[in-house]
C-alpha cells in the first residue's frame, strides 16, 4: 500500500502536472488558430464589403441564416452526421473518404474538413 507523500503520490502528481501542461499547450495552440482564423475572416469580409457593396446587415443576416440551419440560433454550426452513399456507414467529418469503403466524400465542400 503506497504511503501518503511517498514516491507513488509524487509520480502521480508529476503525471497530472504533465497532463495539465499538455492541456494548456493545446489550449494555447487552439487559441492561436482561432486568432489566425478570425484575422483571415476579417480580411475576407473587408475585401468583400469594399469590392461588392455588401453591408454589415447582409453579413449578419447570412450568419443568422446559416446558424439556424441546424434548428437552433446558438452561434454554432452543428455537425451533422452523414452516411456514406456506398456502404451507408457514418462518415467521419475529418476525412475526405469513407473510412470503411474508401468512397470519396463529394459533399464535403470547402469547409467540410475543418
Ligand atoms: Zn462507405
H-E order: HHEE
Bound molecules: zinc ion
Q: Order of strands across the biggest sheet?
A: 1-2
What portion of residues belong to β-strands?
A: under 5%
Structural class: mainly alpha
Distance between the amino and carboxyl termini: 48 Å
Low-confidence residue ranges: none
Total beta-strand segments: 2
Please compute the radius of gyration using only Cα atoms.
22 Å
Question: How many domains is the backbone divided into?
Answer: 2
Query: Largest sheet, described in full?
Result: 2 strands, antiparallel
Characterize the overall form.
flat
| pLDDT averaged residue by residue | 87
Q: Helical region count?
A: 2
Helix content: 40-55%
Secondary-structure blueprint of this entry?
Blueprint lengths: L6 H46 L3 H12 L14 E2 L6 E2 L23
Antiparallel strand pairs: 1-2
Bound molecules: zinc ion.
The site of zinc ion has 8 residues, from loops.
Structure description:
The protein folds into 2 domains: 7-76; 78-108, no CATH class. 51% of the residues lie in helices and 4% in strands. The chain contains 2 helices and 2 strands; from the N terminus they run H-H-E-E. The protein has a two-stranded antiparallel ribbon. Strand 1 (82-83) and strand 2 form a beta hairpin. It is flat, with a radius of gyration of 22 Å. The mean pLDDT is 87. The structure holds zinc ion. Zinc ion (ZN) binds next to loops. Zinc ion binds at residues 84, 86-87, 89, 98, 100-101, 103.
Summarize the structure.
This protein is mostly helical. The chain has helices at residues 7-52, 56-67, and strands at residues 82-83, 90-91. 51% of the residues lie in helices and 4% in strands.
